[in-house]
Amino acid sequence: MNRLKFYRVCLWTALICSCLALFLYCRWYVKTQIPDVIRVGTNEEQTLDLGVKEVSVQVMEKKKVIPGGIPIGIYLETEGVYVVGTGEVEASDGLIYEPAYQVVQSGDYILAVNGRPVQDKDDLITCIQDNQSEVMILKLLRKQEVIQVRLHAVETRDEKYQLGIWVKDDTQGIGTLTYVTENMEFGALGHGITDADTGELLTASGGSLYDTSILEIIKGQRGSPGEISGMITYSDRHIKGNIFHNTMAGIFGTIRESLKKELDETYVDVAYKQEIQLGTAHIRSAVSGEMRDYEIRIQELRLNEDDVNKGMVFQVTDPELLTLTGGVIQGMSGSPILQDGKLVGAVTHVLVNDPTRGYGIFIENMLDAAG
Q1: Whole-prediction pTM value?
Q2: What's the domain range around 202?
Q3: Which residues are catalytic?
Q4: Does residue 83 belong to any structural domain of this protein?
Q5: I want to staple 180 with a disulfide (CB 3.0 to 4.6 A). Which of 66, 159, 192, 343 is the partner?
């Protein structure tokens, strides 16, 4: 009898666990696989059977864009100087001080010192040395709020003054152009430019796109992402566009006619999320030195993913791209993803443990961020 009761308890436990697992899976599926908003183009017919969830349907005029795929040099100007962190200072008396501790924070932007604007590290150093040990009022931008803090610099043994603040100037690098609109507006990268030390999205006050040439391709390997090594030509006559916004979904601005002429000026439709299918698609890239469409396979779609940069998972299947790069490498971020003649998204990240696989952002999300 006891054994029979034991079997019944086991069966009931298994049944309850199975029901709970099914319930949790259904909740996950509804949350991540069915979008909160579905957009359809004018003069299009789509059948929607979504009885498990209330969904907003928006009818919009479909956009046409020119797919990118070419590498671009990026120079992002930050507002003020960016604070990486604070540290200790050894003073002239031999004691250790940390004057900015719990006053200035990582991720702050120093905009001014005693009313004097700060554009770069040299401006900040000059302000500190001019003020010496007198009270300094630092104007900071902290999480979209402007605040003021008071600090005293510490005199060091070499008769210089320090605040114990680690800062950095503007940011530069190589990425890939995603698209260009009829109004000469562009989107690139598919993800935001963040600080390498803090991981925070950088606040841009402006920036430029420049000519770049690829010097070397470092292939990706398991556990070691590859990269595009290139040379950016920083001069006024090599400027290809202007950056206005740095967002989690990419960088945006306007291009010059000289950059547009480097593209195949054929406009394509953009696809909404629900139009994208698992299976064959293509990455457009000039990583080899000429524009090519390389075959990939979309393996997973996350229509309601919280991380906007990971809306889809794909695997590179094209033998030529695998031979050239090993898959997805740094510098390919922003490469347009096309399926059935439509622009569906852009490459964002590589899976470090498998460089043949990567993440992509839906082009719908990039266009939303562009405004």
Answers
A1: 0.80
A2: 64-77+170-370
A3: 191, 318, 333
A4: no
A5: 66
